[in-house]
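With this grant's support, we have settled on a layout for protein records. One resulting record is reproduced below.
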Amino acid sequence: MSDDASILVSVVVPTYRRPDLLARCLEALGTQRFPRDQYEVLVCDDAALASTRRQVEALQAAWGGRPALRYLPVVGTRGPAGARNQGWQSARGEIIAFTDDDTIPQPDWLGHGVLALRPNLAAVTGVTEMPLPDPPSDYERDAAGLTRSEFITANCFVRRTALQVVGGFDTRYTMAWREDSDLHFALLDHGFSVQRAPLARVLHPMRPVRFAAGLGMQKKVMFDMLLRKKYPLLYRSRIRSRPPRFYLGVTAAAVGAVALAALGYFTAAVAAAGAWLALSVHFFMRRLRGTRRSLRNVVDLAITSACIPLLSIWWRLVGLLRFARSES
């Protein structure tokens, strides 16, 4: 087993009921071109499953303790933010490398990340690659926006001292959304320097998703409201500078049609419904452009185009109410 004093980097991997993906990620982490006694891997299991513990322990035995591999069942607040907190707080290294169980870190990922984290920097974020089919579905194209994120916890290196100063991750982000931006903004808000590490690369293969998966994804938008409340200036300059006007217009037309019909103004209700339909068709055609024209994808786009604007505004309202009285 590696001596604690020799460990420079602790790799934190949150996981939740994805043994095959976890195995693939750990295989890549176990073969890094980095001194094997200078890093450890911490698997933070948000489901706290005995099967995942056995999986990690079997691999730990196969590795022979180099690099060190530890299993941590997540207790307390669940979600990726809470899992990552448990990981870095249990870590032995002074540099904390974060990735996810569905990534494949490239063999020189650790080496390039550590080299990029110069003494004047609190954190660096690497490059996340997500290969797409040609042409992609709209969902796949949208998900690939992850690769353009300014700071992403699927691929970042943060000094333990900086995490201690900002308090780590905000555990109110109970879904995998905006918790990385929150940490980024917290570091910037405390005056820390954060830069890119373009040579530290991880592969993030696209996973199959269920039909109309875009509808369930809208729930994550409520966490934008928490991020906006905590860091209004950074949110406006780096995430969204103005309200989602198109979504608001579509929602106003739909709600107006229902309200006018309920009040007996049927002509006005038909006009409002027509406006909603026209905007929804425009949204559908815009999303269809450049995407895969399979029957499944076209039907998916038709259904989600009718619903996404309304769901997005709904979850924004939920977020506003949910976090209205919470502390920043």
Q: What stands out?
A: The longest helix spans residues 295-322. The mean pLDDT is 95. The beta strands are 9-15, 39-45, 68-73, 95-98, 104-105, 123-129, 156-159, 194-203.
